Every structure is written in C-alpha cells, then in structure tokens.
Amino acid sequence: MSLLDLCQWLQDGSISTALRESTTLWPVLEGSHLIGMALMMAPVMMYDFRLIGFRWKRDPVSKVKWGFLPITFFGFTLMVVTGVLLLWSEPVKCYKSGYFRIKVIALILAGLNALVFHSTIDRTTSQWDMSLPPPFRARMAGILSLTLWTAVIFAGRYTAYNL
Fold first, then answer.
1. Mean pLDDT of the chain
2. Which residues neighbour 53 within 8 Å (Cβ) at sequence distance 6 or greater?
3. In whole angstroms, what is the distance from residue 152 CA to residue 37 CA?
4. What does DSSP assign to residue 68?
5. In the predicted model, is pLDDT for residue 86 greater than 90?
6. Could you write out the DSSP letters of every residue in 117-154?
C-alpha cells in the first residue's frame, strides 16, 4: 500500500467525510488550529528573540523560557490535535500539495532544531543565562527556529488556500 493509497483510504472513511462535510466542526477545527498556532508561536518567537539577543536582554534566558513554556505547550498540543484532524479530513489533497510537503519538512527540521538545542546548549544555560551576546550556538538555534517556524506558517497558509 502506497502513501497515496493510505491517504485515499483515510479520505474515503466515515471520520474523514464527517470532518470535511461538517458545517460546524470544520470551522471550529480551523479556527482552533490558528489559535493553537498563535499560542505556540508567540512565546516561541519571544524566546527566540531573547536567544539571539534581540529582546529582553536584561532578563535571564531561563526566566524568559520558563515564563512562556506553559503557553507554548498548550498551543502546541492544540495545534497538533487540530492539525491531525484537518489532515485527516483531506489527506489526498494534502498529499498532492507541494506546500503541505514543504510544511512537513519545515516541521521536521524545526523539531530537530529544538531537540538538538534542548539536548545540548540549553543544558548549560546556567553558565550563559545573562551573557550578551548569548553563545553562538544559542543564537543560531534561535535564528533557525524563527526561520523554520515562519516557513511552517507560510506553507500551512498556502496549503489551506491552494488545495
């Protein structure tokens, strides 16, 4: 079974049809996905701005991180749950969309960037918490995060309007 066959099987199912054809659930899912994106992305961007030394220079990196983390996790959870349901509603269209493929690649790279950052340089934050500028690797992780998440947002919006 190919990936396209799997997408077609999902799309032909009753859950996909119910999601896609609902006049109430579809707009709630789409709106909730955007709210989740905002709740996740605003704190991520603020943290990234601190990492690159652009904003909140007088605040320790750890304070900025822990101040935003609960909102980030809530937004991420909401975005993932609604995103999976949106994908489930139109898997064949997503499969055929070049923008959706860009979004998925950017999502994977953003996740890898976060994984590498949090498993390496972030573990030594106490050593450079107030350093200006922050270490090169922290700044690069912040710049890469901003770039990749911007790509996810743009590709996602283009996916929504070009299916």
1. 93
2. 132, 133, 134, 139
3. 10
4. H
5. yes
6. HHHTGGGGHHHHTT-SSPPHHHHHHHHHHHHHHHHHHH
Full-model pTM:
0.89
The type of residue at 95 is Y
Q: Take residue 150 and report the two structure tokens written for it.
A: 């911007």
Q: Is the distance from CB of 41 to CB of 59 less than 8 angstroms?
A: no
How far does the chain reach from its first CA to its final CA, in angstroms? Answer: 24
Dihedral, CA atoms, 37, 81, 11, 31, nearest 10 degrees? -40
Per residue in 23-35, pLDDT (tens digit) is: 999 899 999 999 9
Alpha helix positions (H), 13-135: 14-21, 25-51, 61-89, 91-96, 98-119, 125-128
| Distance, CA of 144 to CA of 69 (rounded, Å) | 19
Residue 44 token pair: 């991520």
Query: Is the Cα torsion angle 112, 144, 101, 84 positive or negative in sign?
Result: positive
Q: What is the pLDDT of residue 121?
A: 93
